[in-house]
């Protein structure tokens, strides 16, 4: 399931992030790549322990924790501290799958990457190219979102980033370990959640609202690791 999460940041906040990030010290993006992906990865990143990366990363995680669509779609158990990348002057990232396990640098914390996320920080009109191409079960999807919006997709997907031929594309990217590791189960729970909320809004006293909420929680109980 691909999910477009709107307005994780407002356009003004995204612009603030961009201004701060543009002036930071960037390093070769291959610092976090595995052997295979390092051969096709051409971009820049902020070091994981860069103070600005850590500050913005904390803010993003706080936003996500209050974002109902993100919480319902991802059912997060752990969120990897968001990282930041920059593509410009022809930078691209060839087809790859993200590493299954990620360790947070300098800590004993590890997570299984069930979901990958890209939070766009540059307005699409400010750069050419740079689409995130995801091979989904329903075909190939091309993703280029307004600044402040995020795409959430199964980390099992093959994906790549097209060359940026004008301007600079700055984004945040990270991974989520979900309480429900299977994408199909997570999608089913999300559909049920949306239907329950609609029913609760339109017919709050309908007895099925309580019954279906019970089904939702019992499925979580059956499928969730916590
Ligand atoms: Ni990737």
Explain briefly what this protein structure is.
With 226 residues, this protein is an alpha+beta fold. The chain has helices at residues 11-22, 35-38, 51-65, 68-74, 183-202, 207-223, and strands at residues 3-5, 27-28, 41-42, 44-45, 76-79, 83-88, 92-96, 101-103, 110-112, 115-120, 128-129, 132-136, 139-143, 150-154, 159-161, 164-166, 168-178. Helix 5 runs antiparallel to helix 6 (207-223).
> Number of DSSP helices?
6
N-to-C SSE string, H for helix and E for strand: EHEHEEHHEEEEEEEEEEEEEHH
Say how many strands there are: 17
First-to-last CA distance: 22 Å
Beta percentage is 25-35%
The biggest beta sheet is recorded as:
8 strands, antiparallel
Spatial extent as radius of gyration: 18 Å
Structural class: alpha+beta
Helix content: 25-40%
**Overall shape:** globular
Q: Are any ligands bound, and if so which?
A: nickel (II) ion
Spans where pLDDT lies below 50 across 5 or more residues? none
Q: For the residues shown, what is the average pLDDT?
A: 95
What does this protein structure show overall?
The chain has 226 residues and is α+β, with helices and mostly antiparallel strands. It contains six helices and 17 strands. Strands 1, 2, 4, 5, 6, 10, 14 and 17 form an eight-stranded antiparallel beta sheet that branches. It starts with a strand and ends with a helix. The model has no long low-confidence stretch (mean pLDDT 95). Nickel (II) ion (NI) binds next to loops.
């Amino acid at each position: 399931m691909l999910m477009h999460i709107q307005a994780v940041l407002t356009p003004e906040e995204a612009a603030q992030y961009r201004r701060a990030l543009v002036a930071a010290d960037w390093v070769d993006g291959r610092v976090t790549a595995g052997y295979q992906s390092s051969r096709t990865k051409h971009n820049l990143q902020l070091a994981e322990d860069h103070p600005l990366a850590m500050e913005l990363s904390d803010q993003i995680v706080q936003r996500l924790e209050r974002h109902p669509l993100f919480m319902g779609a991802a059912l997060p158990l752990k969120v990897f501290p968001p990282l930041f990348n920059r593509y410009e002057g022809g930078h691209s990232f060839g087809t790859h799958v993200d590493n299954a396990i990620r360790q947070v640098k300098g800590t004993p914390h590890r997570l299984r990457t069930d979901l990958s996320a890209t939070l766009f920080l540059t307005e699409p009109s400010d750069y050419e190219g740079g689409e995130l191409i995801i091979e989904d079960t329903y075909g190939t999807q091309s993703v280029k979102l307004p600044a402040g919006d995020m795409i959430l997709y199964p980390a099992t997907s093959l994906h790549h980033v097209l060359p940026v031929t004008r301007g600079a594309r700055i984004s945040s990217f990270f991974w989520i370990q979900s309480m429900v590791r299977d994408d199909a189960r997570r999608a089913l729970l999300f559909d049920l959640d949306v239907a329950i909320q609609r029913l609760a809004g339109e017919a709050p006293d309908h007895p099925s609202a309580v019954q279906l909420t019970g089904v939702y929680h019992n499925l979580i109980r059956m499928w969730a690791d916590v």
